[in-house]
Design a protein that fits this description.
The chain is mainly beta. The chain is built from three helices and ten strands. Strands 1, 2, 3, 4, 5, 6, 7, 8, 9 and 10 form a ten-stranded mixed sheet that branches. Strand 2 (40-45), helix 2 and strand 3 form a beta-alpha-beta unit. The longest helix is centred in the first third of the chain and has 16 residues, at 4-19.
């Protein structure tokens, strides 16, 4: 009796498994997060929350995957509530940092998504973060920081960096 076809099956299964690795798979935000009730780092503003940048306004309410179907690779974090706005509308400013690994450049745009992965805000990069290149030597730009203002006073949010090819990468999770 010839058992040769059964010997080929494990090798064929391994080959088929490898062929499914053509693109990075979508992943949930990393488990590291700022604790609930995150402290306000800087200050309280009595003004209302500034409006979102013009580039993000057409994306508000869309799911992250509908707006950005591709995943990029970056390093970064969604660090802290930097400001609290008490005017109308009330909200917060989220602060973090991001680095596009493929381009070796800072993240210039950030989107914030809620627990249902709907885009609820966005912000801009280019903020001074001299601590980042000190901690991560392969990052050469001291302006990897970003700020995003959002008219929410609490919640979980996930930050995603928009990379140079209009894909997004995970920057982190915050609860406030």
């Amino acid at each position: 009796m010839n058992h040769a076809p059964f010997a080929i099956a494990p090798a064929l299964a391994a080959l088929l498994g490898l062929s499914a690795c053509d693109q990075p798979k979508w992943r949930e935000p990393p488990p590291a997060k700022v604790a609930a009730g995150a402290p306000v780092k800087d200050k309280v503003e009595t003004t209302g929350t500034p409006v979102a940048p013009a580039w993000v306004q057409p994306l508000l309410g869309k799911t992250l995957r509908a707006a950005f179907p591709q995943s990029g690779i970056c390093k970064g974090n969604t660090d802290v509530v930097q400001k609290k706005y008490t005017g109308a509308p009330a909200g917060v400013q989220i602060h973090g940092w991001g680095w596009d690994i493929g381009r070796k450049a800072r993240i210039e745009r950030v989107v914030l998504v809620d627990a249902t992965f709907r885009i609820v805000g966005g912000g801009e990069g280019g903020v001074s973060r001299t601590d980042v290149p000190t901690a991560v030597p392969e990052i050469t730009d001291p302006n990897t920081g970003w700020n995003a203002d959002i008219a929410l006073t609490r919640g979980p949010l996930d930050g995603y960096g928009v990379t140079g090819d209009d894909s997004v990468c995970v920057l982190g999770h915050i609860e406030f």
